[in-house]
Design a protein that fits this description.
One of its GO terms (molecular function) is DNA binding. The chain has a three-stranded antiparallel beta sheet. The chain is of the alpha+beta class. The protein folds into two domains: about 10-40; about 40-103, Multidrug-efflux Transporter Regulator, Chain: A, Domain 2 (Orthogonal Bundle), CATH 1.10.1660. The protein is about 55% helix and about 15% strand.
């Protein structure tokens, strides 16, 4: 085991910086916390697996406004309720055997 000795003032400084970083993180995520707690959100891969569609078909659904989404840090998220509603309504397009769509 290696032991490293540092001054108490340096340790206190690191503690204060870590506390400040934690506070910044809490403040940055606070506004999203209620959104994600109220509703289950899915990413692209989860939606494709749930609906048994390709990423391109998912893109078409987004472009046509058939599946609402939110973007957070360049990543798309979909409400589980919206995905279920689209599934219950039936796929807007028929998918052929290779996963592409027949429009």
């Amino acid at each position: 085991m290696e032991v490293i000795a540092i001054q108490k003032s340096a340790l206190e400084g690191m503690k204060n910086e870590l506390k400040a970083l934690l506070e910044l993180t809490e403040n940055a995520t606070r506004k999203y916390r209620t959104v994600f707690k109220e509703e289950k959100w899915l990413d692209n891969q989860e939606v494709c697996l749930m609906m048994n569609i390709t990423k391109r078909t998912l893109q078409t659904y987004k472009e046509k406004g058939l599946l609402p989404y939110s973007k957070l840090n360049r990543k798309n998220y979909y409400k589980l309720a919206d995905v279920r509603a689209l599934l219950e309504a039936g796929h807007p397009y028929n998918t052929n055997g290779n996963g592409s769509t027949d429009e």
